[in-house]
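Dear all,

This email documents one entry for the complex benchmark we are building for the journal club exercise. For each entry we list the sequence lines for every component of the assembly. Then comes the predicted three-dimensional structure of the complex as a token string, followed by one or two observations. Please use this as the template for your own entries, and keep the labels exactly as they appear.
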Amino acid sequence: MIEFRSVAKRFPDGTVAVDDFSLVLPSRQTTVFVGSSGCGKTTLLRMINRMVEPSSGEVEIDGESVLGKDPVALRRSIGYVMQNSGLMPHFTVIDNVATVLRLVGVQKRAAHERARELLEVVGLDLALADRYPSQLSGGQQQRVGVARGLAADPNILLMDEPFGAVDPIVRADLQQELIRLQRDLDKTVVFVTHDIDEAFLLGDQVVILDKGARVIQVGSPSEIIDNPADEFVSAFIGVERGRRALRIKETPHGRVLVDSEGRTQGALVEDGG
Amino acid sequence: MNLFAQAFAWLFAPERMEGTYALPTLLGQHLLYTVISVLIAAAIAVPAGWAIGHTGRGREVAVGISGAARAVPSFGLMVLLVLVLGVLRIPEAAVVTFVLLAIPSLLAGAYTGIEAVDRHVIDAARAMGMTEWQVFWKVEMRLGLPLLVGGIRAATLQVIATVTIAAYVNLGGLGWPIIQGIPLRRFEQVLGGAILVALLALLVDLLLALAQRMAVPTGLRTSSRDRSTASVPASS
Ligand SMILES: Nc1ncnc2c1ncn2[C@@H]1O[C@H](COP(=O)(O)OP(=O)(O)O)[C@@H](O)[C@H]1O
Ligand SMILES: [Mg+2]
């Protein structure tokens, strides 16, 4: 369990990235921070592994403040997948994946063996193991980034817009794989995105944020869609107009649901019918 | 044309291999002064430049010192040092001059190398759990190496050129035939010496240019990008 308690972050230049944020992130679930660019999502995420130090408040993992831990050991124990992969350009794919294992002292041979397993887990051809990141497509690089984040088998996985820079088809593919992975691995995932559809797809708990990481609404995707907290949320998730604003249309074969553009989204199946 | 022929005749005359001023001796002196001076300068400037690049602190000081050192006329400084230290300490005076001359390029090569490394990569290295030393040694130093070797190349060539003039204070080196030949109007000797200096500089430059290319990590070489088109079946 990760808990934020009245966390604030003011950067030296005066920017208040996080104003006063409190939240519990349950273990073995995926919590998604969603909000527009600059609202403080990355700052929140990086306070978990002490890449950013809070100005005030506490971040706790299983009841222990991260501020009492050695930052290097803490970071090695938490997986982190970055936007634009953040791979070491001068390491091969296999060495990138094995980075954390090598840092914690695993022998090269064992680390590479584990890294190869992970390449398979994330659906990468082993023929890519000896390539360099510059020789991979964007989607492949993100897979390597995910494999690297998982390599040391961390309990917590932080993912900062990991699929933001890849094209929509590859993104959909990667999202499905993450769902599959999460079913098998059961990690505490903290996922950041500005894409509300992605948030609803991946999140057990979705946190909608505004400037200064102000929480507008927290809940499961269904809770939020069933009961948007305010007009901002309704507009953001598109229940007034857009893909989630569905109405019933009668057809000779029964009732179907169409969105505001008139596209059919599905059939209406009556309960107990 | 005639002068060139005379210069080559001078260069290949059997006397060039004899005595205190035999060409191999002069070449050896030239190289020895260059190598010693660049090594001493590197021992000072490279760690300092790396520290500046890694911490981001002290850059202004480094730029100031480099600017000042570049502004000092090296020949004047050398003559001054010879006068101050005395004629028995010519080699020391000369080496001090060469070291001062080499420091700015080496310092700049070391810190700009690290400054040029993509901030995202350094951030990612730290986020993986690398210690500050590991961030420096495994990432910043490796990725900054080509610019450092560039600095070594510039410094070495400056020192080679300046060692030539140092023959004026009786240091030996390949400048000796030039400095000695001018007042005696032995122009074939002057040209012969100049040809040797030019060849030495070209050769060293070529070698260090190769070293600079080899210092580029494999994953960042442009040629490696061409291979990315080679087909490996893979998803996305
Ligand atoms: N190191 C920093 N120094 C100053 N301001 C920063 C820094 N990092 C982020 N910010 C600012 O804090 C705010 C929140 O940033 P961030 O957490 O990156 O937002 P998001 O990830 O939601 O786009 C932005 O206004 C950003 O410009
Ligand atoms: Mg961000």
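Observations: The longest helix of chain A spans residues 168-185. The radius of gyration of chain A is 20 Å.
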